[in-house]
Amino acid sequence: MKLSAIATALTLVASATAANAATSIEFWHSIGGDVVDTICADFNAQSDNQVECIFQGDYEVAMQKAVASVRSKNHPALMQFYEVGTMDVMMSNIFKPLQASYSDVNWNAYISGAKGYYQSADNQLMSQPWNSSTIVLYSNKEVLAKAGINKAPETYEELVTAMKTLQESGHECPYTTDGHPWRVMEQVAARHGVEIASNSNGYDGLDAEYKVNEGLIVDHMNNLHHWNKQGLVKLDPQTRAGKYTSAFASGECAMMEASLSAYNASSTSLGDSLQISMAPVYQGIDRLNTFVGGGSLWMLDGHSTAEEAVAKEFLNYLRHPEVQKSLTAMTGYLPVTQEAYQHILDTTDSDDATFASVHAGYASLNQPSNSASRGIRLGFYTQFRSIFREETQKAFAGDISMQQALDNAKRRGDQLLRRFERTYKNIS
């Protein structure tokens, strides 16, 4: 369904604004292409008010621009921030808490994996989940079938068996990854209910400490290291394509765990051979939700009542199931409310390739949750990701043990956390 048609159908959805005359606001975002421009143009066509949607570069660049704009008191009314920047935004106090700003929205309609990441410690949504993704298992059905494997692995034990079967049948790359912590550590910890850091991954206080050098995280990283040495798992530089998503899409590698953002390229290349399923868990584990990836929308403080009303009107529009469906169709991002997902089920065929990635992703985010799968609320987390990857790459290269790599990551990560704690310890 085209957004222009949706806009016509949703004329009555827009909430009333505080001013009689048209009010204009700015919305800064980090989604390239014309997707957001299309959404904004259709909103503007059905509203008395206007939202100017301005692309600000990737998430890191946009965050820097947002900080500068707040300091100069020239900041937008709405801003998209990426999920790992949530803690930094919350501690800055530059925003208006979303849930506290509304009295007529059922926030419980949001799926658990999307909602928890953007909530405060007392379960209040600070921002509106929007462009949401998660991790899934991609499989090449045709390649697996030739090796006698008739279903995608549901456990890591089944994955090992499948990788060995593929290798024995002559396949040179059973599985591929780039080793990014979002894929090989964070998402694994989430769906197994294991803390990355103490204090419920930082939700319960700034004095959290990393726990990446113990328990299941160590076991899984050692497993990846062992599988890599056996030739069952290949990292980016070890593939002919040079990038894990390209190696899978080209048919070089048979399986990968990756974000839903890899779906369009994989589907275009592999067609009916592509299979999407929930990422595996270890046997005996009760599966929990995976973490959400992508970004959320923040109402920034310091604007007039009329401007805030327009911001809320636009957020209301984006929550509508038909608008969520269109965003999914254009980008592959997931619907983030129960109603929107049901709308997709009710209005599309089950074999519609446009939405084939949605079902596994939605199921993965909508599993039961605990304090460890809720999200990550740790300061300077993007820097920690770089540290984790740097240290574990040393282990994959054979320079140090994986345990030493994780010990180093914990030590260096805790130093970041203490610096963040000193910076914000007097801010409630």
Walk me through the structure.
The protein is of the alpha/beta class. The chain folds into two domains: 3-133 and 291-347, D-Maltodextrin-Binding Protein, domain 2 (3-Layer(aba) Sandwich), CATH 3.40.190.10; 135-290 and 383-424, Periplasmic binding protein-like II (D-Maltodextrin-Binding Protein, domain 2, 3-Layer(aba) Sandwich). 45% of the residues lie in helices and 13% in strands. The protein is built from 18 helices and eleven strands. Strands 1, 2, 3, 4, 5 and 11 form a six-stranded mixed β-sheet that branches. Helix 1 (3-9) packs parallel to helix 2, helix 14 (321-331) crosses helix 15 (338-347) and helix 17 runs antiparallel to helix 18. The chain is globular. 47% of the residues are buried. The complex is composed of two ATP-binding proteins (UgpC), two transmembrane proteins (UgpA and UgpE) and a solute-binding protein (UgpB).
Helix/strand layout:
Layout: H1 3-9, E1 24-29, H2 35-46, E2 50-55, H3 59-71, E3 78-82, H4 86-92, E4 95-96, H5 112-115, E5 128-133, E6 135-140, H6 141-146, H7 156-168, E7 175-177, H8 181-192, H9 198-201, H10 215-229, E8 233-235, H11 244-249, E9 255-259, H12 263-270, E10 274-277, E11 293-300, H13 305-319, H14 321-331, H15 338-347, H16 356-365, H17 381-396, H18 402-424
Parallel strand pairs: 1-2, 1-3, 7-8, 7-9
Antiparallel strand pairs: 3-11, 4-11, 5-11, 6-9, 6-10
Helix pairs in contact: 1-2, 8-10, 14-15, 17-18
